[in-house]
Design brief:
The structure is a single chain. The chain is α/β, with parallel strands linked by helices and about 300 residues long. The mean pLDDT is about 90. It binds adenosine-5'-diphosphate (ADP) and magnesium ion (MG).
Length: about 300
Amino acid sequence: MTEAAIAISNMSKIYAGSGTEPPKKALDNVSLTVRRGEIFGLLGPNGAGKSTMINILAGLVNKSAGNASIWGFDIDANPRNAKVSIGIVPQEIVFDPFFSPAEVLEVQAGLYGVPKDKRKTMELLRAVRLEDKANAYARSLSGGMKRRLLVAKAMVHSPPILVLDEPTAGVDIELRQQLWDYVRALNAQGVTIVLTTHYLEEAEQLCDRIGIINHGEMIALEDTAKLVGMAREKIIVVSTAAPITTLPSDPLFEKVEQSDANTLKITYDKDTTNAGQVLTTVQAAGVEIVDVTTQEADLEDVFLNLTRAKV
Ligand code: ADP
Ligand code: MG
């Protein structure tokens, strides 16, 4: 068996309380393996424990229990080797405002002991499309540019694993796409990618596998396609020609709601029926449809289905 990129076993974290704050259990006996070469998504709502897990791997937070190794190096027994095996883009953006992007990368390369002739400052800045900002003050960069600079900074020592904690916060759509193109290109070159997000769609588009974390517990760990298939329910929103007087009902519908006089919201199980059948049934009930939109299953649906499956 080839070694894991990241192996976490039975990891727990309890933050000590302070003042009136009670202690907080942020991770509860989490086990997880990230495979070498994959793009892994850690998905969960705010406060689920994602950053706590990343910060433990980064050596910024001490775990309360359990073990973790990075590229085969135990983070306690071999912290230096573990650290050079991973590049981390933190959730919070913090820069010295008077450093230029080129200086930020040079300083970071120095910290990791990358010799001058092995440094890739301009190459990295080009890759994240900041080459024309190389010598600008970091404080003059937009939020999206700063985040891309952080990605470059995480890669100065060419780690085999890149971790991005909520990378799309504050990044506009076009630049988000560029960021993903870069992440995919790195992955194609063999870099293992871990990203955390609370957007299912983001994880769905990029990741080979997804772990779902909720209240510090891993509640699912699956291939992306399989996980998305677990979100069985789908919603169809129908605008009607005439105001709705009676709600159509049918065993095919899990739920029918009226959002306003001319709008119906129908929830159905996509394993047992499809949008075409739902619309045909609505029309057969005498409703004249003028417009239709569908809503994909979202993270909440996955959660609901998973927690339902648990009982
Ligand atoms: P996520 O990144 O998934 O949003 P976090 O790991 O940041 O979640 O937080 C998990 C839980 O731990 C939350 O309830 C959060 O309030 C709490 N927490 C995070 N950092 C600290 C800290 N330094 N001290 C106390 N509680 C914390
Ligand atoms: Mg976080």
